[in-house]
């Protein structure tokens, strides 16, 4: 590689300044000419200027390199944050977290998201998994202790108990409420719609959908709520008027 390919005009000027003033100053001092301090000062300024001309591009490259390094470190840090958030969200969604599941759905639709394809794959996997969970919604044990007669509780009391119950017992409460034939079918279905919209649990969501689909005669076999909400908006008045039979 030719060294002179990397030598600029500023490099040459810097070298000329340095190698011109240094010998001149040495001879000036050696011959004890007048104003030696002024000559030393001029030599110092020439050397400084020459060094600046030679090194300015290197300093700029170093500064830009440091800036690039910081920018690259920041980009890497951002990628790690995104990856950590994505991984945590997938794990949470797989662990019955409705909010995480909905977040994966949003990321899957956002083609600018760095993990849009992975989010879509994870979301589809979870949707498919909950098809099997529908089989576990029916035939729950009674949510009440042996000394409690749930049939004496009003619909309002049952809904309150559902809200206050721990997550693991909510499917049992949900099935019990759905089986209460003394509660109007419209009220029970409206309650299922409320649960579908608000529950934080994918398992509870699956059970609410399962009971709702029994009445609506829907066969989607997934945990997507929009088709059920659309059906409800179109048919709730018929339910209220008794045009659709009870389960």
The fraction of residues assigned to DSSP E strands is under 5%
Largest sheet: none
Distance between the termini: 87 Å
Count the strands? 0
Structural class: mainly alpha
User: Counting H and I runs of at least 4 residues, what is the number of helices?
Assistant: 9
From the alpha carbons, calculate the radius of gyration and give it in angstroms. Answer: 38 Å
Low-confidence stretches: 1-7
Characterize the quaternary organization of these chains.
single chain
Helix fraction bin: over 70%
Which outline best applies?
Answer: rod-shaped
Your description of this structure?
By secondary structure, this protein is mostly helical. Among the domains are: 3-68; 135-240, no CATH class. It contains 9 helices and no strands. The protein has helices at 9-30, 36-94, 98-109, 116-133, 155-164, 170-179, 185-198, 202-216, 226-240. The relative contact order is 0.06. The model is unreliable at 1-7 (pLDDT under 50).
